[in-house]
Known about the structure:
- The protein is an alpha+beta fold.
- It has two domains: 134 residues, no CATH class; 204 residues, no CATH class.
- A four-stranded antiparallel beta sheet has the order 2-3-1-4.
- Strand 2 and strand 3 form a beta hairpin.
- Helix 1 crosses helix 6 and helix 7 packs across helix 10.
- About 4% of the residues have low confidence.
Amino acid sequence: MQLSELIIVINYLDKVLKEKQFNELYTHMITNLNAALTSPTPEVTEEIKKLKQQIYEAHMASEPKNWSYLKIKLFKDFGAKDLIGSEGYNQIEKIFFEHQTDPKGASTAIQGILDRITVLQGRVTQFIEDLGPLATKEEVKEIEEGMSILQLVFDGDSSIKTINDMEKYANKWKTIIMAFSRLSQSPAEEAIIHSIEKGSLILEIIFYSGMIGALAMGTTKVLGVYHEVLKIRKTSLEVKNLKLINKKIAKELEKEANNLINEESNVISQELIKKYKYVSDDKNEVVNGLNNALKEIFNFVENGGKISTFAEGQEGIDDSSKQLSSAFARIDQIESQIEGLKAITDETQTTLKEPNNLEESSEEEKKETNEEDETSKD
């Protein structure tokens, strides 16, 4: 269903770009900023203020709502995420903050954004022309009542490159689905593969809504643990960048991060058992199955995989799916911060290993190794 989701994103962009008239608003703003430079008047200042409010309203009204991870990814890949919606308006705020007394600088910066919007609008128009009838074709609804779609995006290190990878993930997700099927007491039938897309492989599975709702809830809780893990890793990198003499602090933090999912998976399993009022004789077996499933989901997400759940033909999704989408957004944010810290760490290590610092760096590494050996003996 990647093509159909791409069509939704393209049509959405076509609609908001036309309805919200970003080109006209930005052009008027540039005109008034130039006027403020040559002949500033209270009327021009008021017009700039008014246009800024209109631009804010246009962006907020254009922010995608309750989209699956794949739609957001396509929105970003198409170059729209930092141009349309809340991130688009953030750019305007940044420009006005950086050029408070420089109308010319603000005008030039906004012209750059306007140029990008013009290119984006041209790409959208071209895509719609190239897709022809497909761009307006309604998708055939094949999902029965009471069924939903589980969408798995195998991205990053979770990407599927070989047949062996496919078999490995197929078995893992079969086990995960069966664990949540037992929890929600959904019929233990084989899931139906709805569609498979290449590239960052996207697998869509049709299953009972009860199971998918339970899996969404469990995954959201796992993402809460992963968020804590990332916070610890972020702190570990910040400690490394402080260049402290005691290197053990960062290592202990990483060790704590790695152990967290093992400690929390049983807690989450018990919460899910209580939530779904599971009291059958095989409760312990179900808890063990959930423990393993939650750890597999953690590994999948840690390696770059993404999960979305939604009902076919509905733009809105239920509360558990909304929470799942929000949790992934928080993960993306902290992962970006960690990438920035890693870049600083790599730059520092490169500096330390320059010719003049090789001897000093080597001595530090030997000392660190000896400390680790002493720790392991204890």
